């Protein structure tokens, strides 16, 4: 962790916020860091809280705030927010893993279902509690056109195969339900915490909250390679009370690769890995 950024930016801001709130907090602070945030874990009376300061984008904080406004108790409780930082409850628990009980997986499916009962306008990241960044599926597709051009220029596919690939990307399989839902956008093992005692579960890290078809939220869970982890996905899908179009989930998995293509095209090793992934999906559009 950069001591300079902590001392000059993060800690002074944290102290100002705590002072403005008039809070008396425990002096034992724990600092953490992720790719996108600085964290300060602290205690106020019986509450254990997390302060996070966004490193790069104010949208990270805005998304978490929007998620709390629309999804309520499905999201960790927020006590304070400004354009750069947020203070929320610290969620105790274990990351979801292959050893957890089926009851935990059933509760995870229940949480996802409750979230998907919230309908939303448009597609993509949420700009407000009522609207996403893109009004229609055509707008959503337009966001990957440039990346498709980069893939075409790579000569990874023959001209005929690329034509089929582009047609597939622009006209995906139909969803199980044509209405768009509020989606967490990043449902993976590290973002699902559970209690081994109560079997309660909680989704955390809502920075990718978005509007899309319900299949969109199953992409990361469906990406497991080892058999034990695949069982987690299969069981959650079984407990989830709605049909899902598995072909659309596969489409969204491929779309994640396409969406990242231009970003990583200067890194040869990452580019080769993405090309391998694209070739693995060739059987779905050829």
Short description:
The protein has nine helices and twelve strands. It has 286 residues and is α+β, with helices and mostly antiparallel strands.
Please explain how this structure is put together.
The chain has 286 residues and is an alpha+beta fold. It folds into two domains: 3-89, Phosphorylase Kinase, domain 1; 94-284, Aminoglycoside phosphotransferase (APH), C-terminal lobe (Aminoglycoside 3'-phosphotransferase, Chain: A, domain 2), CATH 3.90.1200. The protein is 40% helix and 17% strand. It contains nine helices and twelve strands. The protein has a five-stranded antiparallel beta sheet, with helices on both faces. It has a four-stranded antiparallel beta sheet with strand order 8-7-12-9. A hairpin with a 3-residue loop joins strand 1 and strand 2. Helix 3 packs across helix 7 (227-239). The longest helix is centred in the first third of the chain and has 19 residues, at 3-21. The radius of gyration is 21 Å and the shape is globular.
Task: Give the tally of structural domains.
Answer: 2
Radius of gyration equals: 21 Å
Shape: globular
* CATH architecture name of the largest domain: Alpha-Beta Complex
Largest sheet: 5 strands, antiparallel
Biggest sheet strand line-up: 1-2-3-5-4
| Number of continuous helical runs | 9
Estimated helix fraction: 40-55%
Mean pLDDT across residues:
93
β-strand percent reads 15-25%
Stated plainly, the CATH topology of the largest domain is called Aminoglycoside 3'-phosphotransferase, Chain: A, domain 2
Secondary-structure element sequence? HEEEHEEEHEEHHHEEEEHHH
